[in-house]
Design a protein that fits this description.
- This protein has one domain (39-223): Rossmann fold (3-Layer(aba) Sandwich).
- Helices cover 49% and strands 10% of the residues.
- The protein has eight helices and five strands.
- It has helices spanning 4-26, 46-49, 59-69, 86-100, 113-117, 122-138, 156-173, 201-218, and strands spanning 39-44, 75-80, 106-110, 143-146, 177-178.
- Helix 6 (122-138) packs parallel to helix 7 (156-173).
- It comes from Sphingomonas glacialis.
- Residues 42-204 form the SGNH hydrolase-type esterase domain.
- This is Arylesterase.
Length: 225
């Protein structure tokens, strides 16, 4: 005959085993949470859109590849629209963010070149860029503001006013600034397409190599892993 003490110990062991089995379904043994890959949105004009280049040679594709080589498994989404002024970009900002399907870990704002090339009022470009930064900060989205520089033939007064927009807004919003998106590329015919304005594939390589440290710094620490 089986004693009552043996039956008691047997039932107790079965209850412990069942509890451990249930716990293993909820928390897999040895499993660790994988960090979310950071999402970066390049919000701009033809320079971020990759005008005149195949998709794999454009800014967003090459930036994504460079970040991954640096150990940041980021996804970089293309939010560039060729020809956009700052006002036009502002008009599509909200639905563009919705279209991402998730809140980005960083938005690179690269705008203003088309306003400058058309000689549009600097105050207008500044007001719209200010509104874009305000909207992104209201959503608690980190921003990297990429600057542009005016062509000298627009006159000294226009050039000074336009070039001052980016440092002024970066300071007002306390956001990091990359001084000149086309740094190292502008006015170099070997790095520019036949239209004389847009970077070729070699030019994009230089832009990406120079901006990567700023992009990395602009990401929150947890998104740099």
């Amino acid at each position: 005959m089986v004693s009552s003490n043996f039956l008691g110990r047997y039932r107790w062991r079965r209850q412990i085993a069942a509890g451990l089995a249930l716990l293993s379904c909820v928390i897999p043994i040895g499993a660790t949470a994988s960090p979310k890959a950071p999402l970066i949105w390049a919000f701009g004009d033809s320079l971020t859109a990759g005008y005149g280049l195949p998709p794999e040679a454009g800014f967003t594709a090459k930036l994504q590849a460079a970040l991954r080589r640096a150990g940041i498994a980021a996804t970089v989404r293309n939010g560039g629209v060729a020809g956009d002024t700052v006002a036009q970009a502002r008009a599509r900002l909200r639905w563009g963010l919705r279209g991402l399907g998730a809140t980005p870990d960083l938005v690179i704002v690269e705008l203003g070149a088309n306003d400058m090339l058309r000689g549009l009022p600097v105050a207008q470009a500044k007001a719209n860029l200010d509104a874009i930064l305000t909207e992104l900060q209201a959503r608690h989205i980190p921003v990297l503001l990429a600057g542009m520089r005016a062509a000298p033939n627009l006159g000294r007064e226009y050039v000074q006013a336009f070039d001052a927009v980016y440092p002024t807004l970066a300071k007002a919003h306390s956001v990091p600034r990359y001084p000149f998106f086309l740094d190292g590329v502008a006015a170099n015919p070997r790095l520019i397409q036949a239209d004389g304005m847009h970077p070729n594939a070699r030019g994009v390589d230089i832009i990406v190599a120079r901006i990567v440290p700023s992009v990395r710094s602009a990401l929150r620490p947890e998104a740099r892993r």
